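User: I'm putting together a teaching handout on how sequence relates to shape, and I'd like one worked example. Could you take Polyprenyl synthetase family protein from Kordiimonas lipolytica, show the sequence you're using, and then write out its predicted structure as tokens right after it?

Assistant: Happy to. First the sequence, then the structure tokens directly below it.
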Amino acid sequence: MEDNGPLNEALAATSTAIERVLDPILVLNGGPEDRVVEAMRYSVFSGGKRLRPFLVLAGAELFGVDKPQALRVAAAIECVHCYSLIHDDLPAMDDDDLRRGKPTVHKQFDEATAILAGDALMSVAFEILSSEETHSDPYVRLELVKHLAHASGHRGMVGGQMIDLQAPDLDLDEMDVQRLQQMKTGALICFSAEAGAIMGHAGKQARASLHGYARDLGLAFQIADDLLDVEGTAEEVGKATGKDEDAGKATLVGLMGVDRARKQAQILADQAIEHLAQFDDKASLLRAAAHFVINRNV
């Protein structure tokens, strides 16, 4: 049996470190605007795998990037991820009442506060990236801002969500669904894996290898997520399950069937690992993450 101890320790340490970065940023000031900050904190500090921040830190370590700087980028990524979850859960989107085993933000607060909390978390992310504390080189900061904007906008995460919302009315084949998932889920994962290379002034080959790793990892992650939606329970997963099938959404699990989808996830994980060959043992945690995403139960 594979020992996931080092990876689990790294994920736990990442979560603690990210919260230490964000705690003094998301400050309550005693004014009526504190309600939106409370909602932001409720989302950010509610747990989760912290996979995207982990990818930032593991990638940054390959290029000798100072950890405090990498942590700030990782915190920015987590802000964008949490914003996307808040908005995905809204009644106008996926209409979920449960996230990570707790009421979703719009249920805990209200819809208007949830929308504003998501908006504010996106703003915080770019505020963090644009700060000199994140990197002394303004060109690097600009690259980080540009690539995160691309990954999270209409050509990435938001565009993927738009396709996903229309999916029940579209005749999507496997290639179409892969494109949807690469945009909605994969784009932010790709940025997370490449951010350390951007900060470390890495060459094109290194960045291309990390992009290839993250692309395959992101697709494997989404297939595993869809398998959990089919096979898991709300108690295990921490959110409602069976919703994709009920909504008539196209997923690779639905198109391929469970067995073939599980095999495809394994193939993608193996491909992701192959992209890391040039990094030798330095990428051991990134390799472990490829196995983790397809074998997780949450």
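A couple of points you could highlight for students: The radius of gyration is 18 Å. Strands lie at 98-99, 102-103.
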